[in-house]
């Protein structure tokens, strides 16, 4: 019996890796209309942008690729005089959405983290082990958005195929 | 399954972490013998009881932290709990 889940590899997203003091980062992301998430391993979402608090003094901003140019201008990652580090990393990640009735079950195979509703908040966003590598898991309507380092994308695709088709 | 308490992420599965070795006593002075130096550098204590060790949340938030782990029961506590 197959899983009732839809797994889709996403087109490129605009992604920025942000490190620095929280008060400084808060001011920088306020320029693009965002606030810092209030709890560790959660995301603040607005206008299709997701600001994920993924580590101490570490955030990952995901946004639709149409916003990339605007965000590059506003966040100005090339400006070394700024007091927090913002790196444009859109090309470093591949994103997948896992949605449907059995999305939780697919995630349970992929990761040791319990991502079911009672354990993983509705705005949850965290790095965890994902098919043996480090991957971002973000709660998504009817499922999850996951992000892995791009060089692993084919491997992760193959794992998803094995799970959904039951092949060995 | 061993779970470890990441200070940022909370309780997580052991497979998300890498062991970063035991915490060591302070580096000995430069006039120690070769065998004393090798002992300090490469021979970890292995008592029946708690050992203090460093862990790296490599597949999570990336934080390094120190815990105390019981070598028999794998019971874990934070160093500050011990001193309380």
Give the strand tally of chain A.
10
Helical content class of chain A = 10-25%
Q: How large is the radius of gyration of chain A?
A: 16 Å
Please name the CATH architecture of chain B: 2-Layer Sandwich
Structure report:
The complex is a heterodimer of chains A (168) and B (84). Chain A has 168 residues and is an alpha+beta fold. Chain A contains 4 helices and 10 strands. Chain A folds into 2 domains: 6-10 and 92-162, Gyrase A, domain 2, CATH 3.30.1360; 14-91, Heterotetrameric sarcosine oxidase (Alpha-Beta Plaits, 2-Layer Sandwich), CATH 3.30.70.1520. Chain A is globular and about 55 Å long. With 84 residues, chain B is an alpha+beta fold. Chain B has one domain: 2-Layer Sandwich (Folate-binding fold), CATH 3.30.2270.10. In chain B, strands 3-4-5-6 form a 4-stranded antiparallel β-sheet. A two-stranded antiparallel sheet of chain B has the order 1-2. In chain B, 17% of the residues are buried. Classes of the chains: A alpha+beta (168), B alpha+beta (84). The A-B interface holds A 40-41, 54-56, 58, 112-113, 126-130, 133-135 and B 1, 8-9, 12-13, 15-16, 58-63.
List its salient traits:
heterodimer; A: 168 residues; alpha+beta; Gyrase A, domain 2; Alpha-Beta Plaits; 2 domains; five-stranded antiparallel sheet; globular; B: 84 residues; four-stranded antiparallel sheet; two-stranded antiparallel ribbon; elongated
């Amino acid at each position: 019996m197959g899983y009732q889940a839809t797994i889709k590899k996403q087109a490129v997203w605009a992604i920025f890796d942000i490190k620095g003091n929280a008060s400084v980062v808060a001011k920088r992301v306020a320029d693009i209309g965002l606030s810092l998430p209030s709890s560790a391993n959660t995301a603040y979402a607005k206008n299709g942008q997701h600001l994920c608090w993924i580590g101490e003094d570490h955030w990952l901003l995901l946004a639709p690729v149409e916003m990339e140019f605007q965000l590059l201008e506003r966040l100005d990652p090339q400006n070394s005089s700024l007091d927090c580090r913002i790196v444009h990393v859109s090309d470093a990640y591949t994103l997948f959405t896992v949605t449907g009735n059995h999305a939780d079950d697919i995630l349970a195979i992929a990761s040791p983290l319990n991502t079911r509703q009672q354990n993983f908040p509705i705005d949850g966003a965290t790095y965890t082990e994902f098919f043996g590598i480090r991957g971002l898991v973000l709660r998504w309507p009817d499922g999850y958005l996951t992000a892995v380092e791009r060089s692993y994308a084919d491997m992760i695709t193959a794992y998803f195929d094995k799970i959904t088709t039951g092949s060995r | 399954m061993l779970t470890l308490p990441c200070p940022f992420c909370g309780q997580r599965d052991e497979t998300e972490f890498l062991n970063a070795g035991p915490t060591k006593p302070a580096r000995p002075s430069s006039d120690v013998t070769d065998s004393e130096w090798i002992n300090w550098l490469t021979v970890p204590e292995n008592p029946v009881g708690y050992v203090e060790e460093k862990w790296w949340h490599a597949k999570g938030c990336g934080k390094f932290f120190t815990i105390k782990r019981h070598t028999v029961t794998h019971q874990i506590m934070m160093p500050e709990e011990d001193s309380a």
